[in-house]
Design brief:
The chain contains four helices and seven strands, in the order αααβαββββββ. It has about 190 residues and is an alpha+beta fold. It folds into two domains: about 60 residues; about 110 residues, Immunoglobulin-like. The strands form two sheets. The protein has a four-stranded antiparallel beta sheet with strand order 1-2-7-6, with no helix packed on it. A three-stranded antiparallel beta sheet has the order 3-4-5, with no helix packed on it. This is Dynein axonemal assembly factor 6. It holds the Pfam family PIH1_CS.
Length: about 190
């Protein structure tokens, strides 16, 4: 009996050593490439689907740091000029809403301070050493194009606007152009205008 007990203990120890070395080798193989380990997550449990393989191969073919393609930004891409070395002026976008006493004190129109309740967009553009006659401004539904002899600004707007209903005013003492644009909003229970 001792012979059987000794041999079974030796067999178990040998099996344990064999399995532990195989497990360590598998862990080393899986994590040799740090990038391969970094992109794995809970969604990678189970067999890979065909769709995941297609997406990853399409992403690999792109091999670029672009966050969107030119197809996704249709309006305004014709204004992009790589050769033009004019700097972009400083600008600021401010969302505005019309608020009356019935909104402020009684809350009758259901407006809140969120951007979904804003009706207009104010774009302030600083144009140092520029005259009002030198400014060329073109506004599309989702793009604002401003050109002066010293500056060039191609601005993709965060919301669609009514391009024909805007207003621009140049303040020479501040050397600043203010463009007020009315936003296109879907009619819902907040924007009932």
């Amino acid at each position: 009996m001792e012979y059987c007990g000794v041999s079974s203990v030796q067999n178990l120890e040998a099996l344990s050593a064999l399995l532990s070395t195989q497990q360590e080798e598998e862990e080393d193989e899986d994590c040799r490439n740090a990038a391969a380990c970094a992109h794995l997550g809970p969604g990678h449990i189970g067999p890979p689907s065909k769709k995941e393989n297609e997406v990853s191969s399409a992403y690999m073919k792109k091999n670029s740091k672009d966050i969107w393609s030119e197809d996704e930004v249709s309006e305004g891409s014709q204004y992009d000029d790589v050769i033009d070395s004019r700097p972009q002026p400083e600008y600021e976008i401010i969302l505005k809403q019309s608020v009356g006493t019935e909104d402020l004190f009684l809350g009758l129109s259901r407006k809140d301070p969120s951007s979904m309740c804003c009706e207009a967009m104010l774009v302030k553009i600083k144009l140092p050493d520029t005259k009002a006659t030198e400014v060329v401004l073109d506004v599309k539904e989702k793009f604002l194009d401003l050109r002066t002899p010293k500056y060039k600004l191609g601005l993709h707007l965060p919301h669609p606007v009514h391009s024909q209903e805007g207003k621009a005013q140049f303040f020479s003492e501040r050397e600043e152009l203010e463009v007020t644009l009315l936003m296109k909003r879907p009619l819902d229970f907040i924007n009932m205008q």
